[in-house]
Every structure is written in C-alpha cells, then in structure tokens.
Amino acid sequence: IDLAKIERLTGKDRDELDEISRQGEKVIVKVGGQKKEFTANQVLFDHCLACELPTPQEYDILLGEPRPPAPNMEASGKNIAGLKGIPSAERWQSWQNELSRCIRCYACRNVCPACFCQRCFVEETEPQWVMPMPRWQDNLIFQIVRNIHVAGRCTDCGECERVCPVNIPLRSLTREMYDIVGELFKFKSGMDKEALPLMTHYEQEEAEDFFR
Ligand code: SF4
Ligand code: SF4
Ligand code: SF4
C-alpha cells in the first residue's frame, strides 16, 4: 500500500490513519472515526500495479496461493505518461522543482539492490562529479548518473521511490530507463537467472572499440 497515495486521497497525514485493512479487492482506511473504501488500483504502489511476477519464479515457502500475473500497465504508468505529456520546458521545470527538495540523504541509492559499489561516484573527490551540497543541479546529475549506472540491472522494484523521504517521483526516471532497456535490448533484469547481465559482458566482435 502506497501511504503517499492514501495521504493524497484522504487529505490526512499517515500518522493520523487509524487502520488500513484489505477486504478482497477493496482497501479500507479508518481515519478520524470514518471508514473510507478504495480500490486496490487507487492505493497500491505504481510498481506493484505493474508486477509481472506476483508468484516468484523460485521460493522455499510460498505464502498464500500462486497468483496469475495481471499487470495494469495503464494505472502503473499514469504518472509517467502525465509527465511525458507536458511540454519539455514544463517538464524541465517540474524536475527542477522536484529535485530542489532532495536532501541528498542517499536512501534511494542505499536501498537499491542494483547499487552495491564499495565507493559510489558521489563520494569521489578526484574528480568530484557532484558537489556535496544538495543543489538541484547536483541532485539532477546524481539521479541521471545513477539511473544510467543501474540500466540493465534495475528490476523496477520501486524501492528508491518508496524510501525517498520527500516523495520525489524517482520511478518516473527508473521505469523509463527500464522500458528503454527492454525496447532496445529485449532485456528485463531479474527475469532469468541464467541470462548474462546486460552491461557487463561483450563480444569480441563488438563494432565499437570502447567495448573491448
Ligand atoms: S532518497 Fe530522495 S531525498 Fe534522499 S537522496 Fe534520494 S532523491 Fe534525494
Ligand atoms: S527501482 Fe530500480 S533503481 Fe529503484 S531501487 Fe529498485 S532496482 Fe534500484
Ligand atoms: S550510483 Fe552508481 S556508483 Fe553509486 S552505488 Fe549506484 S551504481 Fe554504484
């Protein structure tokens, strides 16, 4: 359940919610002595709405019954489609506003299963890729470079957006990259454990020298 969505729908802070329960496809929220009902599509995380593997491919113990995949790509991609639908100057302004709120806590990077470097590029001082002060320009560079680094490894788990304390819509960047990787390379990270990682192997016959 995406508490940020419930906050928007109820107009209440998550600390004010008394109880959240699920009855079939309905989600019941008790707040201020009132009971409000929502559909799962209204309150699930966007990345959960896009889930292609509700039953894991491998498991030791499966809790509950196996479920067939039923991704709702339209609902899942609503925010991204909204952003893509606005003129580029407005989109630029929107990202500037969003990234101005980033406090550079690095929670998005620390939670990410694809970000496991011993020393992240943001900690480098020679050269210094980003300044430590969370200016929006440096925050933008951090997110763009991180997004490129995790291309082909990001599984659209949505954790980076979920943990962001200031609710920056990071999945709008990471899911877009996930789709671009899928489109260009017909590759989805995390789907096949036998598949070689996309960006870490190359063929001797690669046309571009920089690969070798
Ligand atoms: S989690 Fe949010 S606030 Fe923290 S560094 Fe990432 S984008 Fe910035
Ligand atoms: S959605 Fe992608 S970038 Fe974000 S935490 Fe998951 S794997 Fe990392
Ligand atoms: S942002 Fe890049 S350098 Fe930093 S931990 Fe993630 S993959 Fe590594």
Describe the structure.
The chain is mostly helical. The chain has a domain at 73-211. Helix content is 37%, strand content 9%. The protein contains 10 helices and 3 strands. The chain has helices at residues 3-10, 40-43, 46-49, 73-76, 78-84, 88-100, 107-111, 136-149, 159-163, 171-185; strands spanning 17-23, 26-31, 34-39. Strands 1-2-3 form a 3-stranded antiparallel β-sheet. Strand 2 (26-31) and strand 3 (34-39) form a beta hairpin. Helix 6 (88-100) crosses helix 8 (136-149). The longest helix has 15 residues, at 171-185. The protein is globular. It binds iron/sulfur cluster (3 copies).
Radius of gyration: 20 Å
Low-confidence stretches: none
Order of helices and strands: HEEEHHHHHHHHH
Strand content: 5-15%
The tally of helices reads 10
Secondary structure class reads mainly alpha
Overall average pLDDT: 92
Main β sheet profile: 3 strands, antiparallel
Strand order across the largest sheet: 1-2-3
- Coarse morphology: globular
Query: Whole-Å distance between the termini?
Result: 45 Å
Give the fraction of residues assigned to helices.
25-40%
Q: In total, how many beta strands?
A: 3
Present as ligands are: iron/sulfur cluster
Describe this structure in a few short sentences.
This protein has 212 residues and is mainly alpha-helical.
What topology emerges from the helices and strands here?
Layout: H1 3-10, E1 17-23, E2 26-31, E3 34-39, H2 40-43, H3 46-49, H4 73-76, H5 78-84, H6 88-100, H7 107-111, H8 136-149, H9 159-163, H10 171-185
Helix pairs in contact: 6-8
The chain binds iron/sulfur cluster (3 copies).
